[in-house]
Amino acid sequence: MSNIDTTCVNAIRVLAADAVQKANSGHPGLPLGSAPMAYELWANHMNHNPKNPQWANRDRFILSGGHGSTLLYSLLHFFGYGLTMDDMKNFRQDGSLTPGHPEYGHTIGVEATTGPLGAGMGMAVGMAMAEAHLAAEFNQPGYDVVDHYTFALGGDGCMMEGISSEAFSLAGTLGLSKLIILYDSNNISIEGSTDIAFTENVEKRMQAFGFQTLTVEDGTDLAAIGAAIEAAKADKERPSFITVKTQIGYGCPAKQGKASAHGEPLGVDNVKALKENLGWPEPEATFNIPQNVYDHYQEKAAKGAEAEAAWNKLFADYCAKFPELKAKWDKFHAPVDAQALLNDESFWAYEDKAQATRAVSGTMINRLKDILPNLFGGSADLAPSNKTDMKDAGDFSKANYAGRNLHFGVRELAMAAMANGITLHGGLRNYVATFFVFSDYIKPMARLAALMGLPVTYVLTHDSIGVGEDGPTHEPIEQLAMLRSQPNINVFRPADATETAAGWYLAVTSEKTPTALVLTRQNLPQLAGSSKEALKGAYVVSEAKDAAKMDGIIIASGSEVSLAVDTQAKLAGEGVDVRVVSMPCMDLFEQQSADYKESILPKKVRARVAVEALSDFGWGKYVGLDGATVSMEGFGASAPAAVLFEKFGFTVDHVAEVVRKVVSDNK
């Protein structure tokens, strides 16, 4: 290691320690221990250009151990991504570009929002899947225009979380050789030595998953780290896992190798001792970085600009030689033409027969696959039930990266993380699928998608007690309320084919918001009044005979809308005049103007009944104190769907009874 390399590694350490100390909050241990491997990777083995952080063929880097964010921020600062010293001084402060954990879209150069441990590993696998698929779509002999690596760095916590095992198992099966994992192995977690809870042989596990495994015994040995990275790149059949044995809190005499280095500032005296131990000039000074450090980092950064310049020339030649692929590239990387899709009659056409919305969704997917050549998705081993298979599109596998159908296996949590990674990579429009009740497994990664503003689509079928004989373990109750409570996600539960088409239109035209399509197993009738107005979140699907003097409003979603319409007809015969509102998406409805919302749910009409075969949580804002709900108050049961709907009160007679009472009480 040259003197300047040593100084540049130590610059990461002291800057990270100073930032955490000034904030009096943070995690210095990881940056101190991992600084050598991060420096070696970014300086000598990773293609990236700070002058163009969005360069399409850049290598991707994810800090899966996001608590060690000052490691990443220090790299971004030194390499010239625009993070200033003032940004470093404002670590963890309100409105700063250096929040406690890295946030995608907030800080330039951050490839993914990481916080929950292991999530970054799943997203890295997704990025590698995207790279492999795009390479198969676009590369030609002599023109590897998609040719980059995905690197992820994480520690013992990332390896303990089950999501990483799910993701790595699939990565090995797929032979994603452009995926390289750096394991910061220091045998310390918050509670102390990892021996109290984590004694497995991680390398053996990774070998079983199908990874090449490499070990660097001394985490300060840049040459050994570099050799391991190059050996990882040389394996063209397997992803690689590099164990780098480090010491948490390296360089701080009082903290090195101890759990106390993980999640608290070192202390002023210990920061000074760290600098003295590293031979840093003026150890009492803070945020003091010699100019030769910046000069050296800029020399390294210039190599990235040269790499992009070479790629730009290659890509220009490629576009000239393959104009049809250039046109395809542009289509892959352009937003969906929303207006054209809205006006495409064939997209909105449907058969006038009773169909499950999951089946209609399957039809929509196969229409969209021809409209959107970059549609790329699949299911957690449930494609036949979820109806998510793209016909004649091939299966994505080690033998065929050009396939568009993804088979995630029974790995819902990792599937959702991989979906984030695929979308983050760019160039692909992604969907994933499972049964709605298993959205519990998806939720943590869907939350990250919403936080990052990623338009991932979740196809969630078997949406209620209509699941039937599988019983309460497979019948969702609280899941709809759970997803609706999350910011920035459109939860869309359609009532028929037109509304299902609207849900898919919403999903594929969204730019910053994930969409959850909540779909039925059982057949539903096509509704005479359904329309594209569903895109407003709620609309009048069946009007009262006299809207100016209506007695009440029934609000429903999904399979219960037809029940509401049938109930309306029964009540009309009794002289009770009600409007039926279909509300497939509360989120969209709340985005409409006050005038529109008033036109659908007039404040003067206080007799309101919501009908939904799930938990009533969240309906209070629409039915108010004077209204009521027909909903599930407990778990389901195992019986045919028709039996269950009657057992739990989802019948015309029962809904009519509730409406009558509410109308009577409001007179």
Task: Write up what this structure looks like.
Belongs to the transketolase family. Catalyzes the transfer of a two-carbon ketol group from a ketose donor to an aldose acceptor, via a covalent intermediate with the cofactor thiamine pyrophosphate. With 667 residues, the protein is an alpha/beta fold. It has three domains: 304 residues, Thiamin diphosphate (ThDP)-binding fold, Pyr/PP domains (Rossmann fold, 3-Layer(aba) Sandwich); 187 residues, 3-Layer(aba) Sandwich (Rossmann fold); 130 residues, Rossmann fold, CATH 3.40.50.920. It is 43% helix and 13% strand. The chain has 26 helices and 20 strands. The strands form five sheets. A six-stranded parallel beta sheet has the order 10-9-11-12-14-13, with helices on both faces. It has a five-stranded parallel beta sheet with strand order 1-2-3-7-6, sandwiched between helices. β17, α21 and β18 form a beta-alpha-beta unit. It starts with a helix and ends with a helix. 54% of the residues are buried.
What's the CATH first level of the largest domain?
Answer: Alpha Beta
CATH structural architecture of the largest domain: 3-Layer(aba) Sandwich
Can you tell me the number of structural domains?
A: 3
Shape: elongated
Considering the protein shown, what is the CATH homologous superfamily of the largest domain? Answer: Thiamin diphosphate (ThDP)-binding fold, Pyr/PP domains
Beta content comes to: 5-15%
The rounded distance between the terminal residues' Cα atoms is 85 Å
